[in-house]
Amino acid sequence: ACNNVAQGGATFAAMLTTRDSKLKSIGVSSGLSALLGITEPAMFGVNLRLKYPFYAAMLGSAVGGAYAAFTKILNVAPGPAGITGFVTMKSGSIIDFLIAVLLSVIVSFILTLVFAKSKRFNRVDQ
């Protein structure tokens, strides 16, 4: 779930930093679908195309996943990915799950903004 929402957060940040109107329109729908668990449009349509959002999403996912492992989040069954994954969490793990998801989104969003401002990444759209 952390990867899904991290891809969504990075897509929203990339959408804010790009000047390409086509990428902006793709970013809205694919970012929302990534938050709900379907990452392919966000990954292949925006994040891999620009590269730096994908790197930010990997780091955001790592932070959220590390928090999830540290707090020993447990689920009772495999289920939906993304924000809706809380329905399969054990009752004592729901808050920690939501914190892990929030960490993933925030870290990937902020890192995408930072990477967009960095001169190290040559942006395709400008």
Short description:
Helix content is 67%, strand content 0%.
What's the topology here?
Layout: H1 2-17, H2 21-35, H3 40-50, H4 52-70, H5 94-117
Helix pairs in contact: 1-2, 1-3, 1-4, 1-5, 2-3, 3-4, 4-5
Describe this structure in words.
With 126 residues, the chain is mainly alpha-helical. 67% of the residues lie in helices and 0% in strands. The protein contains five helices and no strands. It has helices at residues 2-17, 21-35, 40-50, 52-70, 94-117. Helix 1 (2-17) runs parallel beside helix 5. The radius of gyration is 14 Å and the shape is globular. The mean pLDDT is 84.
Low-confidence stretches: none
Structural class: mainly alpha
How many helical elements? 5
Helix content: 55-70%
The oligomeric state is single chain
- Rounded average pLDDT: 84
Report the span from N to C terminus: 32 Å
Task: Give the tags.
67% helix, 0% strand
